[in-house]
Amino acid sequence: MTATAAPRTKRQKKQAQGPYGIVGSTVEALDERLGIAKGGRTFMDKIFPDHWSFMLGEIALYSFVVLLLTGVFLTLYFVPSQHLMKVPMNFPYKPLRGDTVSEAFYSTVNMSFNVRCGLLMRQMHHWACDIFVGAIVVHMARVFFTGAFRKPREANWLVGSTLLILAITNGFLGYSLPDDLVSGTGLRIADSIMLSVPVLGSYISFFAFGGTFPGDIVIARFFIIHVLLVPGIILALVGAHLGLLVRQKHTQFPGKGRTEGNVVGSPMFPVFIFKTQGFLFMTLGVTALLGALAQINPVWQFGQYYAAQISYAVQPDWYMGFLDGLLRIFPAWQWNAWGHTIPLEVTIPAVIFPGIVFNIAMAWPWIEQKFTKDKEIHHLLDRPRDVPHRTAFGVAFFSLLAILFIASSTDVLANFFHVSLNTVLIIMRVLTFAVPIIAYPVAYFICVELQAGGSIMGKRKIANVVTRTEEGEYVATPSAPRPGDAHVELDATPVPTFIVEGPAPESDEAELVDAEVDEGVRTASR
Amino acid sequence: MTSHHEPADITTVTADAPQMQPLAKDVVSMERWIGLLFLLGIAFFAGFGVAYWQDGTFWLYGTLLGAGLVAMGAGFIAWGKYLLPRGPFVEERHTLASTEQERSAFSAALMERGAGEIKRRSVLGTLLGGSLGVFSIVALFPLVRSLGPLPGDALAKTNWKKGMNLVDINGRKIHVDDITVGGFATVFPEGLQNTDEGQAIDQTFLIRIDSADFTTMKGREGWAPHGYVAYSKLCTHLGCPVGLYEQQLEALVCPCHQSMFNVRKGAIPTFGPAPRPLPQLPLSVDSDGHLIASAGYNEPVGPGYWERP
Amino acid sequence: MVRMLGNISKLVARAGLGAVGVGALALLATPFAAGATTLHHSIAATSTVKCPAGTTATYDPPYGVPASLIGEDATTKRKNSGTPYSSVQCYNAAGKLVAYGNNAILYTYPSENLVPLGEKLYQQNCASCHGVNADGVLPKGTSGAFPDLGNLGPATINFWITTGRMPAADPKEIQASRKPPRLTDSQANAIAAYIDSLGPAVPGTPEVNVKGANLTSGQTLFALNCAACHTITGGGDALASNTYAPSLHVATVTQVAEAMRVGPGNMPVFSGNLTDQQVRDIAAYVTESIAKPTDIGGVGMGGLGPVAEGFIGLALGVGILMLVSFWVGERQ
Fold first, then answer.
1. Which of B30, B65, B260, B270 to mutate to test the interface with A (most CBs of A within 10 A)?
2. pLDDT per residue as tens digits for the range A105-114
3. Which CATH architecture has domain A50-305?
4. Do the beta carbons of residue A390 and residue A368 sit within 8 Å?
């Protein structure tokens, strides 16, 4: 690799650059300055398990990317101001012409009607939000049911749960920004929930709204929290989440050649990069298709929020549904004594209950440790059926939240099934207790049954050949496995640094590669 | 097939190792499929460009963009899954924990250089702690206290006063003959119908449930002239406007969480999560036949809060 | 539990997938934006109210409802309301009131010639419940308590019959449901003529002139007065004690105006506190903007709101992406 004379031909130029061409020289230049080669290769060799359930977190990550991209677009048009203005008389949507609306509302409908791609971006943003929170929940369920949160990953579980809370919070903040009838009603309810906090409630409310509801500043405040503060924290925590993941390496399901001491799967480069980049584009694409074909939050149909207006059947976005559901079915209890009121009918369902839910979720690794006394480090995952109590608890917990979510549409259910609202409410109250209580033992026994079923599940059935003996007896014998029936799983191999052409190198190029291999090995072992 | 050298992270593998083979059985046709996906992606993206340039309809360019991304993403994934080495590959997991010695060296450094120093000069340490504490408390003042005024008794008051006219959203006074039995109007104190305060706090639901004077409950005699009753429109549950009136059932329903109130009996809650009746505004009729408030509300309107008696 | 799940899945299907499938076709036909049209902002001019041919007009500002019909001195009413529109009352040669109103809504009475036909239709279709004399009195031995129709105006009769609610499918229902009408509009008119002949009452059948309607005012008034029951997108929803607010998506302008002025069933009556202009604005908003929503963002999902959107986001968004990860990853 010593350049003797100035390279003249193309071939000479190529040779002067070394066997790895421009890439090689760039790596050399960077490595001399930053020392990237060793760490960079470790990173490239990082193994990602191939099981599909490990991709769920990526749905969340990439929908967050969609949120950032579309969100930046929206900030270019959105005006976070409650200042009132008149809608121009040439506005495309007739029922708004000449109406008095806030700048926040006008800029939202204006970007929907008058900005090319504006509505697409708005709808993609909202759909991506629904998907973001949904994917976090699904990912979290996977981590929960397989025990991936166990030591040493408790910290990452905490980071992840915090991300869920932040995602929900930011979803609600964003939902409040357009200042339409539905979001205004949501703010009104949020204000009342703040008021329900004992002792501090009215202060929280006054400080949030800058006075009595609705005030004139809440949207400006929510805007900056929504676009800067919370996304910044989310971004930092996503970095921490992934950093911890790289540092601690992935968990994996037990299987052939998989131990507590290794990780089996595909290397970061190039296999995983290809798959995951494709997945990023798929997420973008699905969000764009939803944004193009399915209308979400058509605020022009709702109109500007005025505090005296109200629509029936207003609900929050789905991830707040469980709170709304519990608020609906909770009994009308209030505590009133010594000149003070605690509106328990609000405080318990909207403040204490979510507090309990998220605290249980965040503290779960330690709660479980209390029961199992298991302080060992785990890198191999549990099959849910093998940990029936955890699985049963998780099923009961999720079913409780699911019932509360359904309870947030008592009116829709009553209308749909033509039963009275009162009946639906009472049914929901019963189900809230009954479903988790039934779900726990049912899930538990299903797990136990599956354990007893052994490993037949998921494998292809083997045909039985029934023959009739001369005595007239029928005998069933399992047939020989057909070709392709047998599940072939290769042994895992370390990620190769060098790929050697074939067993017996023949061509000149192969020799060249071989020579480089030797040199590389020598260099590395120095 | 694999050879380990020193250090152990240099490995080689022959190109014909089974792990290095693509998953695709027919590589050529897989290449064609992936090529087709990328071509589709190019076509869709170009279509999006044209649709955007020509200001095509919303769903058209959105769909083209989405379809292009899906096609390109699918091609990318298929390339990674079917044409790249199928694996599996393995990496060793090295224990993250340090040795006992390193650990105690770290703890010792922490204690002796830092905490130990502070401990030795405990008075200074206490003072430092004190100033940090005071700082963190006063730092909250500009951050929190400046956010808004103190509540005071603002939540307990409305703008309704004796003799105020009831007006609708357009500022029209309500005449006793305006509303027939079974009708309603949302009313505000005169002059406040277009203000945030008037709409958010003072909003009142005026219903005519009878043609003659009427009493909703004991102690409220004369509050409902000509069968008009007026209740605060703020739900006592979460403050939504209780705008849903069913005239035959004489029930007010809150559209948010379905609390129901009996209009004829002082709006006591009959169903749902609302804990208190809607406050009633006493009414009378002025000499022109217009409805006026004969007093303000005698209790705070809206949802419950700590200072509410 | 199973049934519950089944029902929920039905709900999901109705709210989400069905809507996407059906709506995708409708979408193709949706134009991007409504064309610009001039708005008539000011309340209508005064002199354009016309009586039907062959009748005599009496201009009677400011209110319009003939005093004889409401039993009080109409002209003294609403002294301070300053209603700035003219009104008219039209009498035929025999001195019978044929129409009254203004250029937003003209309330008309059916011709007397229709009374014999109307009586016949009444006896065939209505008398079994409302009594042979339309007074709600049934022969002894028959059960049921049904309204006396004698004091109802043509608008009420017209509303119940043209929305198909009457004759009722099941008279014991808590709330009669909208269905394809059994009687034609002209038959409804005839029955209204017969009921009117038993004793004159207001209101007449409203003829709404939507031309000058202000949709902006309609939207604001709808959000203040109607959305609490019918929802802001007009889909309707369940109310107390097994009643419900019907969907407004199929209502005609006349029916909206009738319902507001009459207050059928549990619906409140919107009388003097809303002017005819405002009723006209709301009726126009309902039939133009709510029944034909501007779903420029794709399939509208029936205006069911965030719960339906959540189902779509989870089922289609997260669901499809989970299928993708199922493809990308290994399934063993």
1. B65
2. 999 999 999 9
3. Up-down Bundle (1.20)
4. yes
